[in-house]
Amino acid sequence: MEHHVREDENGxxxxxxxxxxxxxxxxxxYLWLMGTCIVLIVLAWNVVRFFSITAAVVMSMIAAxxxxxAVIVANxxxxx
Length: 80
Known about the structure:
Elements: H1 14-46, H2 53-75
Protein name: DUF3099 domain-containing protein
InterPro entries: DUF3099 (IPR021449)
Keywords: Membrane, Transmembrane, Transmembrane helix
């Protein structure tokens, strides 16, 4: 019995391509979350604080929670 593996034009099989796609998707989600974190901090202390210190503090608190969530999202489905 032969085992047939479909390969793309670069010689990679479907399972490897799927793993690469999952890694790319996790990296993209991580970068979006960390980008959101940076934007929240920058806006909170350079713009929002002039209008409301409370809002700036709340934005900072939300931004402080994002990095651990980003790590969990990035490592979710990690192939071992």
